[in-house]
C-alpha cells in the first residue's frame, strides 16, 4: 500500500491491509501527510530511516538481511499528491549462474 490514489477502474471490494495495520478499501485516497507520518512514525522503520533531501521528499531506510548484508530502500514522496511515491533498492549486487 504505497499509493495516494488508485485507478477509478479498481472495483471496491474487501478491505486490504493499509498503513500501520489500518484497513482501506481499493479506491480510497490516502494523503501524502498520512503516508509520511505513517512511514516516519512506524515503530520499526523510524529507527533506521533518515531524510536524505533538503526538503521532505526523499528518505533512506536501512535493512539488514538474515545473512548480514545491508540493503537500503530509498523512498521518494513527491510533493505533488497526484504522483505516486516510489521506492528504489540500493546497495544490491546480484548474480545468477544463468
Write the layout of secondary structure elements.
Blueprint: E1 16-17, E2 23-24, H1 32-41, E3 49-51, E4 58-64, E5 70-76, E6 86-90
Verbal overview:
This protein is mainly β and 98 residues long. The chain is 10% helix and 27% strand. β3 (49-51) and β4 (58-64) form a beta hairpin. The longest helix has 10 residues, at 32-41. Residues 1-16 have low confidence and may be disordered.
Features:
98 residues, mainly beta, four-stranded antiparallel beta sheet, two-stranded antiparallel ribbon, 1 helix, 6 strands, 10% helix, globular, disordered N terminus
Count of separate DSSP helical elements:
1
Order of SSEs:
EEHEEEE
Tally of DSSP β-strands: 6
Which strand-content bin applies to the residues? 25-35%
Could you describe the largest sheet, including whether it forms a barrel? 4 strands, antiparallel
Strand order across the largest sheet = 3-4-5-6
Query: Which term fits the overall shape?
Result: globular
Helix content: 10-25%
Helical/strand content category: mainly beta
How much is the radius of gyration in Å? 16 Å
Q: What distance separates the N and C termini?
A: 33 Å
Mean pLDDT: 76
Assembly state (oligomeric): single chain
Which regions have little confidence, pLDDT < 50, spanning 5+ residues? 1-16
Summarize the structure.
The chain has one helix and six strands.
Amino acid at each position: 500500500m504505497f499509493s495516494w490514489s488508485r485507478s477509478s477502474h479498481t472495483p471496491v471490494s474487501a478491505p486490504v491491509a493499509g498503513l500501520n495495520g489500518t484497513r482501506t478499501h481499493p479506491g480510497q485516497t490516502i494523503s501524502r501527510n498520512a503516508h509520511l507520518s505513517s512511514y516516519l512514525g512506524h515503530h520499526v522503520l523510524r529507527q533506521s530511516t533518515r531524510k536524505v533531501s533538503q526538503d521532505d521528499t526523499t528518505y533512506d531506510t536501512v535493512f539488514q538481511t538474515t545473512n548480514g548484508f545491508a540493503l537500503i530502500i530509498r523512498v521518494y514522496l513527491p510533493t505533488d499528491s497526484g504522483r505516486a511515491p516510489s521506492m528504489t533498492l540500493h546497495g544490491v549486487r546480484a548474480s545468477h549462474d544463468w
